[in-house]
Design goal:
The protein is mainly beta and about 70 residues long. Helix content is about 10%, strand content about 20%. The protein has one domain.
Length: about 70
């Protein structure tokens, strides 16, 4: 599958999964809900109008495209 990300791209979700807090990600340590070998779940630390308090569940491995995930 073709990768559209630039070579210098810093994935903000991957930084959050690694526990990195900086200007490149909006995820914080205090937002962590659960983490295991395969997934990490964060509560949204910033709110979007009409979509407050949702949980973001992501694989711990970077995938640019949802269709690149294994079944």
């Amino acid at each position: 599958m073709y990768n559209h990300a630039a070579t210098e791209y810093k994935c903000p979700i991957c930084l959050g999964v690694k526990g990195i807090e900086n200007a490149d990600t909006l995820l914080k340590h205090t937002d962590l809900v659960v983490k295991d070998d395969l997934i990490t779940a964060f509560i949204n630390s910033f709110f979007i109008v009409n979509n407050t308090g949702h949980v973001i569940i992501v694989p711990n491995e970077h995938f640019e495209n949802l269709y690149a995930l294994d079944s």
